[in-house]
Write the structure tokens for this entry.
Amino acid sequence: MIIPIAPPLRVEIEKLPAGDDPYQPLHPRAFASVEKSGVVNTLSRQFAELLVDAGLARPKAHRRSESAPGRDGPREMSQISFHSLRHTATSLMKNAGINASVVMDIIGHESEAISAHYTHIDEETKRRAIALLPGIPMVRAEARIPRQRSRGR
């Protein structure tokens, strides 16, 4: 899947130190993991480690210990996760008015139902939508009420 990079993200990426190889992966550790295993199932863990390194999340134990249940215990939900980025990206694009089919293609959703599940419409977007509704035409009162005909005239 090829997805264009958003201009603000491209600006930030271009600030990163780079080698001489233009085809060097942006995240070498993740790239090596996928190349070695052929699957992306370790990327969420690596993303979580990046969040810890950036000071945005607490470290999690991956193995059982006295102080942590590891993978055998209940799953802790994180407000920031690799998966939550899909919700955020879906919602941001739909709130910006991007066509739903384009959003589905970029995110990789196979159905409108799945895409709808990932969509969280913000209040400002709802206000803009309501503001687009046409006005209610005013009808004079006498035009709405039929006149009674007088009998005998």
Notes: The two ends are 81 Å apart (CA to CA). Residues 81-130 form one domain. Helices lie at 7-15, 28-37, 43-53, 82-95, 100-107, 112-118, 123-131, 141-144. The CA atoms of residues 141 and 147 lie 11 Å apart.
